[in-house]
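=== RUN LOG ===
request id: a7f3
mode: sequence -> structure
chains: 1
length: 475
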Amino acid sequence: MGLTASELARKTALHALNRLGFGPRPADIETVLERGIEDYVNDQLEPRPDGALEARLTPLNNTLRLSTTQVLTTYADSGNQTSSIQAYLDNFHTAKLIRSVHTTNQLDEVLADFWFNHFNVNINDGLVRYSIQSYERDAIRPNAMGKFETLLRATAEHPAMLFYLDNYLSTAARTVNGRLVQGLNENYGRELLELHTVGVDAGYTQADVYDVSRAFTGWGIDNVGRGGNFRYLQTAHDTASKSAFGLQLAAGGQKDDGERVIKYLANHPWTARFISTKLARRFVSDTPPLSIIDRMAETWIASEGDIKAVLRTMIGSSEFWAEAFSPAGKPKTPFEYVASSIRAVGGEVTASRSVVAYLSQMGQPLYQCIPPTGYSDSGAEWLNPSSQIYRMNFALDLAQGLVNGVSVNVRNFALGADLTSPASVAKAANGAVFGSTIGQATLDAATRVDTRITNPSSAVRVSALLLASPESQVR
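=== RESULT ===
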């Protein structure tokens, strides 16, 4: 028996909420249906100012608006760095969680998460600790739906990236006391090719890595301990000619050597395909169809790397919407699971330290991916027994209101339900939050919850069961 028109519509709305954001809050499915799927998608692609979100972030503005120089001045020089900087880090983490849970511009937030992960830096790495807020705020977020070339240049010039991949140390070879001193550092040049643009399969050589790295000599930081700002040092740049993956750079170039490499790589067909594949893996499936990647890459080349245009091609494809009816779904990463669970129960976020601890237990400590690859976008790689146990513990604690910094009322999760009836709670939550996609086996288990146990209540235990269910683990 096929799905009714109403069931098809609800599945489609749920799919839009799950893939273009961090999942529905109670009643979001109905709101999207009333708005219309096409209009909702357009709203996400054209984000508007979110006054309610800004009001939630206002208590954190004493640190959120600090420049890297101000962060260094305020915290790095204040004696006990570990304790003094904790409030700044807590606010930074809390802001990410508040945005993910509460913003109406869900796609914008998912893209900020995607691009940060693509251009990963580790918060525990020296200057990155003090510049990571500026990196996300000034380099990533404003460019998440713009031209890839602009985004790539913003990350290349930011001190967080310059420090993380040691490019601030990279200089042209020079003679000191009659001895040739090699100052080139190849870390950024290698990762620019392998991870940020064309990908490891593009066929570049070690010679390409070498010359790309030479193009970025002199790109550095004014003062690691006191300033934390980008500085180009002309005397440190290698001005000899270069051949960078097919791009010829004549002798005599300066900072424009690196800028020309960025422009060339940002618009390269291999980059179009590599990044389109990553976007499709994040938004469509762990193994996205080649047909959708082909069309996204074509749009990339035609639009000169316009991220929004590529997203429109992806979202407008039949392959994207076909996933709404896939029985498997795409497994959530720990952060996606945590954010979607808080949204599902209508949670209100005011602090994040407790949530950050749960994420660490699940294997995805926030902003702490050590290798430059970033965390995997393949949902299947996050499925393991240890992480699942911690997800279930989080679901139970969340439903009971035991996650510090997140207030929860089970009535929000099961709007209109009789809270004394497990079946009523399960039915209401299934419709309001899961688009009636919870399987019969899970619903049957929920109805068997013992109502004689009152602490926690049966409504809380049903809510926890649904949040921990297989259906809740995928998007």
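=== NOTES ===
The beta strands are 174-176, 179-181, 219-221, 230-232, 242-244, 247-249, 348-349, 406-407.
The mean pLDDT is 93.
=== END ===
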